[in-house]
């Protein structure tokens, strides 16, 4: 993710990523001095950003368009829905076809924290409605929205992820496949089984693959924690073997790290490959 490489200009970001030996990114628009989900992205600005990465030999595998789709602040939610649609429209200029999203939480403090109401029928129904609206915006723009299953959000299991895709029934609804997100603490001993289930349920729908790691939480905690790739328990050889076998052809995006971690994380992924 480009936001992990902080530089004064987007040109410097792209060059630094290239110098790390990396060839594709998930673009965070903050890296170009913009809001994470800007009100508008002018064609001239989007084409300039795309050109900067192209000139550096770095492909934009996806652009981040994530916001809390269950935001209790309805005015902010409506505004973000409109911003998301406009970002989809700008993807042609950004030279990418994937916009990342999440499945939301009732937690008002952070969209990456769980809440008991995430498990309610009302939360699921609202997610279906929002996902349908976003899918229509993505369809009109000719792109896909890639939601990310995450134990802190409404779609917190592999079964729910598959059900969301099949219920909405849109070619524009696909998944950001990050296996570190699949594990509650009780699931960690079932590592290979969970990875195989993930590809069995979601393999045909992967629009973007992520690379981070998962670690067990402190005793009594309900959610796992995350770490840079290679610093946790994820079975990377199995993950990458199954990813290749699935026919996936987009980038493998490292995140949940800092820039000094990049070299070791890259080496870990290459060793697993």
Provide an overview of this structure:
By secondary structure, this protein is of the alpha/beta class. The chain has one domain (2-272): Alpha-Beta Barrel (TIM Barrel). It has helices at 10-19, 43-55, 74-94, 121-141, 158-168, 191-202, 236-245, 262-272; strands at residues 24-27, 59-64, 98-101, 144-147, 173-177, 206-211, 213-215, 225-227, 252-254. Helix 2 (43-55) packs across helix 3 (74-94) and helix 3 packs parallel to helix 4 (121-141). The protein is globular, with a radius of gyration of 18 Å. The relative contact order is 0.12.
CATH superfamily name? Divalent-metal-dependent TIM barrel enzymes
Helix/strand order, N-terminal first: HEHEHEHEHEHEEEHEH
Radius of gyration: 18 Å
Q: What's the end-to-end separation, in Å?
A: 20 Å
Portion in beta strands = 5-15%
Let me know the number of strands: 9
Please report the first level of CATH classification, the CATH class: Alpha Beta
Structural class: alpha/beta
Level of helix content?
25-40%
Which term fits the overall shape?
globular
Work out the helix count: 8
Uncertain regions spanning at least 5 consecutive residues: none
Average pLDDT across residues? 97
Question: What's the number of structural domains?
Answer: 1
């Amino acid at each position: 993710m480009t936001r992990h490489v902080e530089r004064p200009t987007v040109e410097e970001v792209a060059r630094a990523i290239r110098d790390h030996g990396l060839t594709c990114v998930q673009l965070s628009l903050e890296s170009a001095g913009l809001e994470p989900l800007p009100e508008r992205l002018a064609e001239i600005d989007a084409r300039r950003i795309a050109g900067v990465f192209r000139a550096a030999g770095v492909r934009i595998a996806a652009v981040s368009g994530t916001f809390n789709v269950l935001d209790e602040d309805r005015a902010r939610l409506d505004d973000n829905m409109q911003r998301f649609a406009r970002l989809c429209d700008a993807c042609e200029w950004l030279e990418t076809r994937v916009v990342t999203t999440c499945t939301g939480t009732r937690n008002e403090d952070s969209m990456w924290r769980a809440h008991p109401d995430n498990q309610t029928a009302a939360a699921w129904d609202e997610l279906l409605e929002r996902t349908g609206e976003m899918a229509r915006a993505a369809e009109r723009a000719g792109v896909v929205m890639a939601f990310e299953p995450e134990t802190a959000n409404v779609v917190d299991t592999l079964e729910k992820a598959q059900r969301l895709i099949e219920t909405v029934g849109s070619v524009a609804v696909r998944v950001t496949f990050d296996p570190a997100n699949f594990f509650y603490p009780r699931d960690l001993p079932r590592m290979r089984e969970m990875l195989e289930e993930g590809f069995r349920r979601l393999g045909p729908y992967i629009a973007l693959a992520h690379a981070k790691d998962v670690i067990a939480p402190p005793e009594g905690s309900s959610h796992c924690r995350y770490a840079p790739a290679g610093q946790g328990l994820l079975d990377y050889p199995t993950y990458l073997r199954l990813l290749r076998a699935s026919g996936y052809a987009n980038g493998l995006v490292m995140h949940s790290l800092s820039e000094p971690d990049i070299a070791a994380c890259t080496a870990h992924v290459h060793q697993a490959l």
